[in-house]
Design brief:
Radius of gyration: 22 Å
Order of helices and strands: EHHEEHH
Organism: Mesopusillimonas faecipullorum
Number of strands: 3
Low-confidence stretches: none
Largest sheet: 3 strands, mixed
CATH architecture of the domain at 4-60: 3-Layer(aba) Sandwich
Protein name: Antitoxin
CATH class of the domain at 4-60: Alpha Beta
Structural class: alpha+beta
CATH superfamily of the domain at 4-60: YefM-like domain
Helix content: 25-40%
Distance between the termini: 67 Å
InterPro entries: Antitoxin_Phd/YefM, YefM-like_sf
Strand content: 15-25%
Shape: elongated
Function: Antitoxin component of a type II toxin-antitoxin (TA) system.
Strand order of the largest sheet: 1-2-3
Mean pLDDT: 87
Family: Belongs to the phD/YefM antitoxin family.
Length: about 80
């Protein structure tokens, strides 16, 4: 695994290069010479966090309460069964 370091300017000029570099390992992004962000492939992120995505995990995420989500109401009524 190799670590690639890019400045914010380099990232802005060549996002494709940064995305391709994540195949080999994390990409450190610097602001004024200091590490500020890390770009990972999604597979590496999942491995790192050992995360399995399911609805319960998604709803428990910090900030989930700020997501607007209003599912339509469903009315369920009993219907007679046809046993013939």
């Amino acid at each position: 695994m190799s670590i690639t370091t890019l400045s914010s300017r380099e990232l802005n000029q060549d996002v494709t290069r940064a995305k391709k570099a994540t195949k080999d390992g994390p990409v450190f992004i610097t602001d004024r010479g200091k590490p500020a962000h890390v770009l990972l492939s999604f597979a590496d992120y999942q491995r790192l966090t050992k995360q399995r995505r399911n609805i319960a995990d998604a709803l428990a995420m910090p900030g989930a309460e700020n997501i607007e989500f209003e599912p339509p109401r469903v009315t369920i009524t009993a219907q007679p069964a046809d046993l013939s």
